[in-house]
Amino acid sequence: MLKRAILVCLLFFGQNCYAVEVKGLYEVEVSAKSEQQQDRVDAIRRGLEQVLNRILAGRDVLQNETIKTIVIDAPHYVIEYQYSLAVSKKQGKTRMMRILFDEKLLLDVLQPGRLGYWNEIRPRTLVWLVVEDENGPAFFSEETMPDIDAGMDAAAKLKALPVLYPIQDLNEAQRLSINDVLSAYSNHLLSISTRYDVVSTLAGKVTKLNECWKAEWTLYFNGEIAQWSSACLTINDVALNGFQGVYDRLSKFYAVQPNIQAVSSVIIKIAKITDIPELTKVNDYLESLAMVRTVTWVGFEDGYNMYRVFYQGERQIMNNALIKDRVLRIEKFATENAEEVKFRLLSE
User: Fold this and answer.
1) Longest alpha-carbon distance in the chain
2) Region for 28 from its dihedrals, namely left if φ exceeds 0, alpha if ψ lies in -120 to 50, beta otherwise
3) Would you say 120 and 21 are in contact if contact means Cβ atoms under 8 Å apart?
C-alpha cells in the first residue's frame, strides 16, 4: 500500500499529494442555553454561520444579503440535531448542540448569491509556530503546551483547514533556528519546508502578556507573502485570527465561482492510466471541457485514479461530453444522481 501511494504521488509530480478531503463541513457543535425553542433557533443560527464561514470564499460573507436571509431561516436547512453535556474546568457543565445541515439544500439556495464556494478537497498548511512566555521563546510543542495545542486545534477545525506541524527531528534542529522562523528573509525557512510537500506555509509567533496573548503571522502562498497581527486576546481567539488569515487567502484561490447554472460534483474513476504522459493527457482533457470548473485528484483505488470534478449543467450532458472526443469510455453508465462514474482511458 505504501509503495502504491508513493507511486501515485510521483506520477502526479507531488502536486496533489498535499490535498486531503475534509470531513464534516456541514456538521457543527455549538453551545445552547436551553432546549427551549428560541434558544434552539439561536444555536442553529450560530451553527449555520460557522458552516457558511468555512465553505464560502473571503471575509465578511455574513454581511451578504442572501446570507442574512439564509441565516434567519437556518432551521429550514437542518437535517438533524442532538444535545449533550460537556464538562470543562473553566466553565463546568455546558449544554452542547450537534447540528447537521443539508449540503444540497444550502448549495442550491446559495447559487443565486454568486458567492465563491470552497469544496471539501483542501491543501494542508504547514505551521511553524514560536511561543514566547516568561521562559523565553521556544518552538511550539503539542505535548508540553496543551492549552496552545487545544486553541490551535479548535481554530483549525472551525475554519476546516487541514494543518501540518513540523516533526522537529534532529535534521531540522541542526538546520533551523527560531530566528529563521521569525526572520524577514524566508528562503531558508521555505527551503526546509519543501520536505513536507505543501503549497502554503504559515509562520507565527504568539507572545504571552499577563493574562492575554498577541500574535504575528506570515503566510507564504502562491509566490506571495501576507502578514498580519492580532491584538491581545485569548489563545483561542489569537489562533483563530491566524487561521482566518489563511482561510481568507486560500479560499479565494481555490473557490469554485458560481455561474447562472448550478455547480454540481461527481467522483470520476478512470482505469488504465499507467504513466506520466497518460496522466497529463487525462488532466488536460478533463480541464479542457467547457462544463468543468475544477478537477482534483483524490485517490487511487482498485486500479482506478479518482477525481472530484465540479461542473455546471446537467449530468447527462456532462457524461456525453466526457466521451465525445473518444479519450475516455464509460465502463458503468451512471444514473442522473449517481455519485460516481467509472471510465477507462482509451489507447491511441
Assistant:
1) 69
2) beta
3) yes
